[in-house]
Structures are given as structure tokens and as C-alpha cells.
Amino acid sequence: MQKLLPSLLILIGSLLIASADISTPIIGVLTQEVYTGGLISRHFDNKTSYIAASYVKYLEGAGARVVPIWIGRNRSYYEDLMHKINGVLLPGGATWFNQSNGYADAGEHLIQLAIEQNDQGIFMPVWGTCLGMELLVYKLANGTEHRIDCQGKGIALPMEFKEDYNKSRLFASISDDVVTTMIKENVTYHWHQYCYTEKDFERDLLNETWRVISLNRDLNGKEFISTMEHKKYPFYGVQFHPEKPMYEFTKTSIPHTAAAVISGQFFADFFVSEARKSYQSFENATEQARTLIYNYKPEYTSILGSSYIQQYLFTNAEMEIPEIPDEGGDGDGGSSGPYIPIIETGGGSSTILPLFSVLLLTLLIVSIN
Ligand SMILES: *[C@@H]1O[C@H](CO)[C@@H](O)[C@H](O)[C@H]1NC(C)=O
Ligand SMILES: *[C@@H]1O[C@H](CO)[C@@H](O)[C@H](O)[C@H]1NC(C)=O
Ligand SMILES: *[C@@H]1O[C@H](CO)[C@@H](O)[C@H](O)[C@H]1NC(C)=O
Ligand SMILES: *[C@@H]1O[C@H](CO)[C@@H](O)[C@H](O)[C@H]1NC(C)=O
Ligand SMILES: *[C@@H]1O[C@H](CO)[C@@H](O)[C@H](O)[C@H]1NC(C)=O
Ligand SMILES: *[C@@H]1O[C@H](CO)[C@@H](O)[C@H](O)[C@H]1NC(C)=O
Ligand SMILES: *[C@@H]1O[C@H](CO)[C@@H](O)[C@H](O)[C@H]1NC(C)=O
Ligand SMILES: *[C@@H]1O[C@H](CO)[C@@H](O)[C@H](O)[C@H]1NC(C)=O
């Protein structure tokens, strides 16, 4: 028994470290090109890409942390990052898929890499919201266009589940209460000019690889696919915006009822749980700290007329990965470069934790005095 105890402690310790790694997954959110001549470029100099802050809050509100994924990089950048993060969110927005070096090209790398990783047995979930869902389908169909025009701007709709919706992974463990709420109330918020139809999926056999889970009708009564998941890969798509009921307040048509918020939270919780199944991590705490979204500040853009309350805006210079210092921990590391927060990871925490304890102790002594 006495011999067993140390090894038991080591076992418990390593289990704790392992579970600590997956309980707070880090999800990459793809940036998107700023529209030239649009609101952002009129108000902010040199900002070339953005992330609507609602997507960041949406993931954070479910326990994840966020890393921005830059557009306009080469393959090796995406390849490297995809071995460090635990999932990818492709947000909605407004770009053409034929625009080069932007959202669509970066998304193509990410989707291809996610396919490769999943094929190799490395779990890598991808979530597409609105344009992100459209991109997922487009890229998995080898760049063939299946979208049609849709009148789906500014409508709140209930979920219209297909009969076998609970055979999906996405809804396998949803509670009956939440389903009832989703069916009865206008919980999903739509803002899209394109959509996919089930007929089209069947005609071109996209139904062989995608499971259509819910359908809705646009303002003209046209039926379109509103929720889907890939049959083989952990890829999910929603045509609506689950983040908006919780985090966007710029249009009166966005539902903010308790039902809409519970519903949006369901999707966030689901995807973050998927990301918890990934065991990848950054090489060390410094690299992770330098990469997280906390290095950037969102702007209050709705006050300027944007349909996003807040946006993270990036210049080309900011999209360069910040330089990694020799070793943090020695004072504040000078005045150049962003502040490095104290964080814990499986590997890097050992050097940082003692420093943290000393700091806490100092604070304690100071406050006692
Ligand atoms: C934008 O870029 C130009 C040219 O590089 C530079 O002169 C200017 O200071 C930049 N503006 C801001 C706000 O960074
Ligand atoms: C990719 O870009 C990085 C800089 O962002 C550069 O260091 C690297 O050499 C490039 N790789 C290739 C294969 O071009
Ligand atoms: C990209 O696609 C849009 C919409 O189909 C079209 O209007 C635009 O001309 C295209 N641009 C290029 C460079 O092909
Ligand atoms: C896309 O291309 C791949 C590889 O060539 C092929 O296996 C797949 O069936 C194609 N998918 C579609 C929807 O055309
Ligand atoms: C799915 O729903 C059907 C009909 O509501 C029900 O009979 C069935 O038990 C459910 N299956 C699962 C796996 O929950
Ligand atoms: C949902 O929206 C439709 C159309 O605006 C409306 O007729 C209906 O009453 C709403 N349902 C609920 C439960 O609020
Ligand atoms: C897909 O649609 C085609 C055409 O309707 C049908 O023959 C096939 O069985 C469907 N596949 C699945 C998996 O539902
Ligand atoms: C952390 O990882 C980065 C990127 O691989 C590396 O450049 C750096 O030297 C590492 N720092 C420490 C303290 O190990």
C-alpha cells in the first residue's frame, strides 16, 4: 500500500493535468476581409480584417477560449495552427467565395486540414454559421456552387426538425424541454441571401455525406436547409445565427426571449463539448498566451452604424504573429509587445504557477498590513 500511494498520486496528478487540458478548449475563429469602402474602412485606418465579437463571446460563454485565425496566409501557417487548436468556427459574414486571399481561401485550407486530421484519427470539429455553413458545403462539394437565392434577411423562426433529427449527433442528447421550446417559439435568427435546398442535396447526392436535420421557409415560402451535420466528420452547419439572440442588439428583429437565448446556448455548449474531445495544445504557455484573442480589443462598432455591436479589427501588422520573447516572468518584459497574461497549461504551468503563488502571497501580506 505504501509503495502504491506515490504511483497512485502520480496517476491522479497526470489525470488532472490531462483533464485540465481538455476542459478549456481553444477554438480558432476565422477572420474575414473588411469590405473596401465600407463602414469599417471609413472609420478605421488600415484595418483589413475583422471578427464580430459576438462569435467570441458565444464560445467564451460556453467555456472555450478563442484564437483568431488570420486570412491571407500560406498553407504552413494553417497547418501549424491546426495542430494546436481544438476546433474551428467559420463565422457568418459577407464575402464572395471567388475573392482570393480572404475568408474563402483560408477556409479551404482549414477545411482540407480538418478532413486530413480526422482521417488520421485526430479529432478536429468544424462549425459553420451562415456563410460558414455555406462555405463548408461548397468546399466539400469541391467548389461547386449549390446555393440559391433566398429571402432570409431579418426573420426569427422556430426549429422545424426533420423526423429523425434525434439520430443526429447534434441533437442526440438534447432535452425534450429544449426541443419543445425550439419548436414552439421563434428561436432562430436568420440573415442570409442564399440558402441550400434539400431537393438540390438529393439531386447532386450531397445527401450522401450531409445529414439534413432541420428545414425552414424563407419570406417567399421557399424551403431551405437550416441545420445539418456531416455524416463522417465532426462538421456542423447552421444557416441561422445562434450567437445573435445572446450577443447582438442591433436589430429589433433579433429575438432575445429566454427561449431564443436557451436555444442559442444549446448550440454553443454542443460545439464546445465537441472541442473538448480534442487533445491538442500549444507548445508552451507563452506561445498560447501570445496567440489568444485577449491580445486584442474589440471596438464598439454599432454606435457607428454597424450591425455588429462590437468587432475585433486587425491591421496587416497585427496579423503578424507577435514575437515570442526569450522567457517571460522577469518583470513585465519591457514596454514593447502586448502583456502576457498568466495562464495554465499542462506543460507550461510549472514555471508560471510558483511565480503566481509568490504574487498572491505578496498581495496577501500587503493587504494584511
Ligand atoms: C496606416 O498606414 C499608413 C501607411 O503605412 C501609416 O502612415 C499610418 O500611420 C497608418 N495609420 C494608423 C492609424 O496606423
Ligand atoms: C509561409 O509564411 C511564413 C511567414 O508567415 C514564412 O516564414 C514561410 O517561409 C512561408 N512558407 C512557405 C512554404 O512559403
Ligand atoms: C465573384 O462573384 C460575384 C458573385 O457571383 C461576382 O459578382 C463577381 O464578379 C465575381 N468576381 C470575380 C473576380 O470573379
Ligand atoms: C470531391 O472530390 C473528391 C476527391 O476527388 C471525391 O472523393 C468526392 O466524391 C468529390 N465530392 C463531390 C461532392 O463531388
Ligand atoms: C427520437 O424521437 C422519436 C420520436 O419522438 C422517439 O420515439 C425516439 O425514441 C427518439 N430516439 C432517441 C434515440 O432518443
Ligand atoms: C413567430 O413569428 C411569426 C411571424 O412573425 C409570428 O406570426 C408568430 O406569432 C411568432 N410565434 C411566436 C410563438 O412568437
Ligand atoms: C439521396 O437522394 C437520392 C435521390 O433522391 C436517393 O436515391 C438516395 O437514397 C438519398 N440518399 C440518402 C442517404 O438518403
Ligand atoms: C514556446 O514555443 C515557441 C513556439 O514553438 C518557441 O519559439 C519558444 O521558444 C517556446 N518557449 C519556451 C519558453 O519554451
TrEMBL record:
- Superkingdom, natural source: Eukaryota
Query: What PROSITE patterns does this protein's entry cite?
Result: GATASE_TYPE_1, PEPTIDASE_C26_GGH
Query: What SUPFAM superfamilies does UniProt report for this protein, alphabetically?
Result: Class I glutamine amidotransferase-like
Example of a GO cellular component annotation carried by this entry: extracellular region
Instruction: Recite the UniProt keywords alphabetically.
Output: Hydrolase, Membrane, Secreted, Signal, Transmembrane, Transmembrane helix
User: Under which EC number(s) is this enzyme classified?
Assistant: 3.4.19.9
Q: A GO biological process this protein is involved in?
A: tetrahydrofolylpolyglutamate metabolic process
Q: Which reaction does it catalyse?
A: (6S)-5,6,7,8-tetrahydrofolyl-(gamma-L-Glu)(n) + (n-1) H2O = (6S)-5,6,7,8-tetrahydrofolate + (n-1) L-glutamate
> Where does it live in the cell?
Secreted, Extracellular space
UniProt enzyme class: hydrolase
* Record-level Gene Ontology MF annotations: gamma-glutamyl-peptidase activity
Endpoints of the signal sequence: 1-20
Name the major location: secreted
Please give the start and end residues of each transmembrane region: 351-368
Active-site residues annotated for this sequence: 130, 241
The entry's family comment says: Belongs to the peptidase C26 family.
Can you say what this protein is called?
A: folate gamma-glutamyl hydrolase
Q: What species does this protein belong to?
A: Drosophila suzukii
Which gene name belongs to this protein? l(3)72Dp
